[in-house]
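ARCHIVE CARD
CATEGORY: sequence design from structure
SOURCE FIELD: tokenized fold
FIELD CONTENT:
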């Protein structure tokens, strides 16, 4: 099992997307046996004592919830996260619409696959969500918070989307969100994991992009990474509306998950798959040692709004 740092890019704030709004995700990972440290930044604009040294600490994975407006990582933290991947650590990033989470752009190839409004702009440059005029592109409308969206993927099914709980053998539904961000497979080693379809325009957009097989300049394998189009795939509010949302969330919620939670139960297999897939192939602290779980390879897996 993994030691996972579940980290936001903002300081604690009861009326924002701080770490308390991802408690169900932390609980799910812990229930699967992972050791989870869930935290916010200690301060804004100053080097965080954990993020700025994450490459030196005993974590196997970093799940980075980029809920900031562009200032969520310092000049010391971004290189530390890159070094973390270079020593084999697995990294998941999740942002949202427009420029929300654009601090990710300092993360090398993992930053490049994320597109925003002002920086590394989404090539489409099209406002998809028409319901919230204060939010500009990229803002792909996959449905209401509290609803499901169908997952579109090709064959063969990627290990991250496999499950024994459906007849198709794959995870078919993700939580929906009115304005998801933009991610693309624009760098070597990147592949589109899954796509969604806008309920407004009918256009396809990427839900997640996986990075696998990257090599450092020294010839060492980098840790795997995954870039999600929105952190709302993991937020408590998108799993359980009764958990509530910050006061600035104005869109009317949906009711599909509350009416039928079975598809959300299956979606949780995606969380388990992610934790297995992102686990380092070898000990991230020693090139010659075994993994932190004592095995030579990773555990087998079924292969803001602001």
């Amino acid at each position: 099992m993994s030691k996972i740092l579940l980290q936001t890019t903002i300081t604690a704030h009861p009326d924002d997307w701080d770490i308390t709004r991802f408690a169900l995700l932390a609980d799910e990972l812990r229930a699967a046996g992972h050791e989870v440290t869930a935290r916010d930044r200690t301060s804004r604009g100053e080097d965080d004592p954990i993020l700025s040294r994450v490459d030196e600490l005993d974590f196997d994975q970093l799940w980075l919830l980029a809920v900031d407006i562009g200032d969520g990582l310092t000049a010391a933290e971004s290189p530390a996260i890159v070094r973390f991947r270079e020593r084999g650590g697995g990294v998941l990033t999740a942002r949202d619409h427009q420029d929300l989470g654009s601090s990710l752009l300092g993360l090398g190839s993992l930053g490049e696959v994320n597109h925003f409004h002002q920086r590394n702009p989404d090539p489409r440059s099209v406002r998809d969500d028409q319901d919230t005029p204060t939010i500009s592109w990229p803002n792909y409308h996959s449905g209401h918070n509290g609803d499901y969206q169908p997952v579109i993927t090709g064959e063969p099914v990627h290990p991250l989307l496999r499950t024994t709980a459906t007849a198709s053998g794959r995870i078919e539904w993700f939580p929906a969100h009115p304005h998801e961000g933009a991610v693309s497979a624009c760098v070597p080693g990147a592949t589109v994991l899954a796509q969604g379809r806008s309920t407004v325009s009918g256009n396809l957009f990427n839900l997640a992009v996986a990075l696998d097989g990257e090599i450092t300049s020294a010839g060492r394998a980098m840790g795997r990474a995954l870039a999600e189009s929105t952190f709302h795939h993991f937020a408590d509010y998108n799993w359980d509306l009764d958990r509530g949302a910050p006061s600035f969330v104005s869109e009317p919620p949906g009711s599909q998950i509350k009416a039928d939670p079975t598809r959300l139960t299956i979606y949780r297999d995606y969380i388990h798959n992610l934790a297995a897939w992102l686990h380092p192939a070898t000990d991230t602290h020693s090139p010659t040692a075994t993994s932190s779980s004592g095995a030579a390879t990773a555990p087998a897996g079924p292969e803001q709004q602001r």
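CARD ANNOTATION: The longest helix spans residues 262-278. The longest strand covers residues 3-11.
SHELF: design records, drawer C
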